[in-house]
Amino acid sequence: MRAERFFRRLPARLYLLLLAVVVFSFFSNDFGLVDIQKTAIILSAGIDRSEDGFYLTAQIAVPKGGTDGGGTNAVNVCAAGDTLPECVEGIYAQTGWVPKFIFCDLLLLGEAAAEKDAVACLDFFLRSEYMPDSSLVAVCEGTAHAVLSTQSAVDEAASLAVEKLFTDAAEKSGRVCKMTLREFAAGCYGVTESGYMPYLSALDAEQTGSAGKESGQGGQDGQSAEKEPPKVYTAARTALFFRGRMQGVLTPQQTLAFQLLRGKVYAGTVTAEAEGSRVSLGILQNDGGIRLDVRPLRAEFSVTLHVRTTGKSAPDALPEISRSAPSRAQCAAAENAIAADLTSLFKTCEETGCDMFGLGRTLHRLHPNEFSALHGPLLGELSLSVRVRVFGAG
Q1: pLDDT single digits (tens) 284-335
Q2: Alpha-carbon span 205 to 215, nearest angstrom
Q3: Gap between the Cα atoms of 107 and 105, Å rounded
């Protein structure tokens, strides 16, 4: 009788238990809501190094209202300390806001910080459970503080303008090698101890011919920046790292050659001298690859392009423009230019020790018994073979 009564009341008890769980979950969780009065929403962080320690610049979002739909201003708050956690505590002490890095999509390293030890600067953010490891990382010319303090010609905040350089569309042009915190750490902590990231430069918008709106960015260090002309940013160069330190910088041509080798270019252009003039070949399709042989120790770089001519005089009929294809001489000139860039790229990696091609990782995976003997002199003893093929699309 008691068992029968228990099972009859069981559904009601389960419903009460479920209701209690739902109520507890509702009142014990903020569901991702952020109190903007108590929290500093950090858009980007800049890390600089000096003899005294670290200098952290946090660009904090400050929502603004208005009849035109509002927007976002940015305030730069800076703090110094012997370690990065001390710098974060300094920001909290100065503003009374709890620094929130979960929305931080960009980490900028100053030139001195990258040359001294980039891994030491990024390790705090890598191990923080409140920092997304998908954040973009880049090295900037000069100091990160100076770059984040500039006025952008294309956006309200400098960090938002810089992030636009690393979109998927920009990467498909072959002019930028974007890098995330997770991927950079995997390379530096891996068997190759190598990594790379974009090298950022700020240029005067007036000199480049860009026209943009005035920036609303300001802050505790922005008084002098308001008198400077608006800036635009470029990341066509790439910084190379070995054992955590920046060892060199690739040229824009070498950056494009590396992206072609990775097979990631679908909307870029290759410029070469052919038939007495400079022509630009628009890339429609790109396949690239690397093959490593151990006996003999040899690496082969292969790049295949399907292109069309975009820099020659336009024919009279529009249908002919759509079917225009480069001549064999133009394709040969592009092949020679890309092959020269790939060779100089490999030479730069050999001089800096940065294995940005992942050859050591491939050697460790396919030939683990021979890795310890071959990995040390790998780049210096490789026999390089470069094969480039350029085809017309018409």
Answers
A1: 888 888 888 877 767 677 777 676 655 444 444 445 554 567 888 888 999 9
A2: 12
A3: 7
The closest alpha carbon to 231, from 202, 270, 257, belongs to: 202
Q: Cα separation of 339 and 331, whole Å?
A: 12
How far apart CA 244 and CA 237 sit, in angstroms, is 18
The tally of CA atoms less than 13 A away on the side-chain side of residue 248 is 18
The radius of gyration of the chain's CA atoms, rounded to the nearest angstrom, is 27
- What's the pTM? 0.79
278 and 224 co-located in one domain: no
- Alpha carbon 66 to its chain's center: 33
68 and 187 housed in the same domain? yes
Q: Do 210 and 67 sit in the same domain of this protein?
A: yes
Share of the chain above pLDDT 70, in %: 78
Residues 133 and 267 in one domain: no
Q: Which residues pair with 194 in a beta bridge?
A: 242
Average pLDDT (243-248) is: 94
Q: What is the pLDDT of residues 142-186, one digit of tens each?
A: 999 999 999 888 888 889 999 999 998 888 888 899 999 999 999
Check if the beta carbon of residue 113 is closer than 8 Å to that of residue 144. Answer: yes
Nearest to 147 by CA among 175, 183, 117, 111: 111
- Above pLDDT 90, what percent of the chain? 35
DSSP character string of 191-221: SS-EEEEEEEEEEEHHHHT---PPP--EETT
How many domains does the chain fold into?
2
Dihedral sign of CA atoms 246, 250, 256, 258 in order: negative
Cα 73 to Cα 64: distance, rounded to the nearest angstrom: 7
Domain closes at, from 249, 271, 298: 249
Summarised one tens digit per residue, pLDDT across range 254-281 is: 999 999 988 888 888 888 888 788 888 8
> Exposed, middle or buried, 338 (CB in 10 Å: 0-12/13-18/19+)?
buried
Q: Identify which has the larger pLDDT, 370 or 74.
A: 74
Give the residue-averaged pLDDT of 209-213: 49
Tokens representing 108 are 């900028």
Contact 283, 174 (CB under 8 A): yes
Cβ pair 356, 258 in contact under 8 A: yes
Last residue within a domain, chosen from 201, 220, 249: 249
